[in-house]
Structures are given as C-alpha cells and as structure tokens.
Design a protein that fits this description.
single chain, mainly alpha, two-stranded antiparallel sheet, 2 strands
Length: 204
C-alpha cells in the first residue's frame, strides 16, 4: 500500500513537473516573440499572462509564482534585446533605479498567485465556468493595474514624458490610452482561461 502511494506521488510529482516545464516554455517563447507583447504605440497588448493564469489555476500558487517570475524575466530580457520607450520602466540597468525590478517582477509573480485563490474561492459558491471566467479576468487586471500603478508611483515624470503629456493629465491619459487595451486583454484572458482550463481538467 505504501509503495502504491509512493508511486502515485512520484507520478504526480513528475506529471506536475512536466506541466510546469511546458507552461514555462510557452511563456518564454511568447515572451521573446511578438506574440507575447504586441506593440501598440507606447503600450503593448500582453498575451503572455494567459498561460501564467492557467498555470496558476492548474498547478497551484507556488508553481504559478514561478511562472510569473518567468513572465517577469522575459520582460526584463526583452527590455534589453528590443529596447522601446517602456524598457526604461522594466530594467534598472536602463533606468538606474531598482524600482524597475518591482515593476518588472512583482505584478507578474502575483498574476501567478492571485487567480488560483480567486478560482478556489469562487468555485465553492458559483458555477465553475463563471469562476474560470472571473479568474482569467482578474488575473489579467492584476497585471495591467499593478504595472501601471507601479510605473505611476515610481516613474510618474518619465511616464508623462513617454505619453507626451503633463503630470496633471497623466491619470486621464492613462485611462483613455490603456482602457481599450486592458479590456481586450481581459476578454481574451477570460475566454482562453475558460476554454483551456476546462479541457485540462478533463485530462488531469
């Protein structure tokens, strides 16, 4: 009996490790190709957060946090390989400010943690489909809201300069410029998280 349980645990560990490696590979590929960060003016529409959210729900918050770290790492790498206006906010090497590490990594890591707990809480009281949709939505917003908030807090003047506006108008410009991007990202995230997670629940 003990051997059977041990073998099952070993199989589960191996299976989860394979899934973690698969998700990490997908995230890294998205991160270093145009498919993960689609440029749109001074902003980028992000799709790379979607496998992080799915990984969080499927594998749990610890592995989700690791996937979020990989997400942040790709942001850091691409800030140097493909410099843009936003690179300043994601690299202390470029900005000379360690707060860039907070912008680059903290929101991404939380994208790998928060959706798990949202899904775990919601599925107890509402339909699993709605739980997945809301988990995808919230996970996407965590990334957008925290990245923009941290950039505003730590780099408001540089941010205003990048957007060609004044500090007084910065928040208004952020909402009008990012609103559509954030909405599209959240909708895409909700649909894909629902579809992929339901499919994976059937085979795991």
């Amino acid at each position: 009996m003990n051997n059977f349980l041990s073998n099952n645990n070993q199989k589960n560990f191996t299976s989860n490790l394979v899934k973690l490696a698969l998700f990490a590979g997908i995230i890294f590929i998205l991160g270093v190709t145009p498919f993960g960060f689609i440029p749109l003016g001074v902003f980028k529409i992000v799709t790379i957060h979607i496998p992080v959210i799915i990984g969080s729900i499927i594998l749990g918050p610890k592995k989700g946090a690791f996937l979020g770290f990989i997400f942040g790492l790709t942001s850091f790498i691409m800030a140097h390989l493909q410099p843009s206006v936003t690179s300043y906010f994601f690299s202390p090497i470029i900005s000379g400010n360690l707060f860039s590490l907070i912008v680059c990594f903290v929101p991404r890591i939380l994208v790998g943690v928060i959706p798990y707990f949202v899904f775990k809480l919601l599925k107890k009281c509402i339909n699993i489909n709605v739980s997945l949709i809301l988990s995808g939505l919230i996970g996407s917003l965590v990334n957008t809201v925290l990245v923009l908030s941290f950039i505003y807090i730590f780099f408001a003047e540089k941010y205003a300069e990048a957007l060609n506006t004044t500090l007084d108008n910065l928040i208004i410009v952020i909402f009008t410029s990012v609103g559509l991007n954030a909405t599209l990202e959240a909708l895409a995230s909700s649909i894909l998280v629902l579809t992929i997670c339901k499919a994976m629940f059937k085979i795991i």
